Amino acid sequence: MKTDMIDKYSPLPIYYQIEEAIKGRIEKGELLEGEMIPSEREYAEAYEISRMTVRQAITNLVNDGYLTRRKGKGTFVANKKIEQKLVGLTSFTEDMKARGLSPSIKLLDYKLSEAQGKTASGLGIPSGATVIEFQRVRLADQIPMALETTFLSADLVRGLNEKIVQGSLYQYVEEELGLSIDYATQELEASVARETESEILGIAKGSPVLLIRRYTYLTDGRPLELVQSIYRGDRYKFTIDMQRG
Amino acid sequence: MKTDMIDKYSPLPIYYQIEEAIKGRIEKGELLEGEMIPSEREYAEAYEISRMTVRQAITNLVNDGYLTRRKGKGTFVANKKIEQKLVGLTSFTEDMKARGLSPSIKLLDYKLSEAQGKTASGLGIPSGATVIEFQRVRLADQIPMALETTFLSADLVRGLNEKIVQGSLYQYVEEELGLSIDYATQELEASVARETESEILGIAKGSPVLLIRRYTYLTDGRPLELVQSIYRGDRYKFTIDMQRG
DNA sequence: TAGTTCGACTGGTATAGACAACTAGTTATA
DNA sequence: TATAACTAGTTGTCTATACCAGTCGAACTA
Predict the structure, then answer these.
(1) Would you say the ipTM is above 0.85?
(2) Which helix (H) or strand (E) holds A26?
(3) Among A90, A125, A149, B225, which residue's Cβ finds the most Cβ atoms within 10 Å?
């Protein structure tokens, strides 16, 4: 009797039994990272159940981050996490280098827009004021790791343009504008990838992601920027070191 | 023409159109927190589509944290987040009080077990060594907020028992055992609620959660405890304040 | 009155099948 | 040879239906 046999008359749902069977094979190392698992139709036939039931099991495992689906190709075992330290104002670039990965960044979008709601209040400007907004993807070894959207008050960083953003923003702010960066606050929450994010990051819609909002402030207390980052939950964890206060 | 009308011949999937329609009604405030939304059968009839298609839309919104389902009762608009500060070694209790909520804690389980893998290496003890393991639920105003599992090396905290755990563990460690707590490291990652966790926390299986592992160390460098917490993603976000290094 | 049963509602599980959309390799064609 | 068409595989979307399992209140019963 095979241990991963399913029992149609068990009180446990069939889709759940299949979930556990697949999860077990992954944890036992029978299915390796990146490997393609049997197709939905194959499972349906093998266990003599409906393909929709198999889909339910696989959908759950995709949502749990165990598997990823690729239309027309198949379903694959997902990657494990790598770790990112979050101590002080560390940068993605430094973190990736310390890990032996080659970091890069790609500007997706740069535009002027009107501040609204959270963005306006976060930057301490009236709703409707002009903000500079740009979106970047951070990559490590060419693999997309995070999607970053930055908002800056256009009034505060006059003269900023697309080229500068692709260079060193903080250097420009401190040396050219004579502003002094003081501290930052980060908000961290667990979320799930939405449509656009999942496409850009190459993960499944609904995958767990870390949503981080960073507010950076100047020494005079004025907010400088608001950065919202979406980090892939399948690739990252953050660590925080704390001394007892 | 109603704006939330769905179009069967649109290139966008029907389930997606329904998702957006429901999400829109929530964001516009037409559906309030905790309110019950129309039943799956009602949607199916209203839009003249299959109930399974409606289910697919609602399942996605449940996974995205917009809705929660209760068998036999209905589907409800989920709650928004509240915020938790994570500065230094803050405690859940203090955080909740500062927020005007009444914190409490419930011991679910207390037992001796054998350290394995991550637990053993995290506590710096050999695999198979005895550890004290206990599980607690943290509540705010009687609502379960987090599930905490703690591991302590049995060798290090001799004399510890269930009663002490329900009192002040750190006080016992420092005053009775003469050990001095130094610092802690936290790992934070986005995940999804598994079966047991979702039941205890009263959230849907697959909901986003924050998984936090805290390693506490003594001044002599020995690891004292390993605490794994699962925080509800629908109720929490964490904030980290950082001074520039 | 107190307790039980029943019915009508809710979401949960499962079926069998259909067609669309996408991928990749093979085969036929200009 | 290069291109186009075909084919067999994959996941994606959707249908129409069936029955199970909780919930809750109304109607019935002791």
Answers:
(1) no
(2) helix A14-27
(3) B225
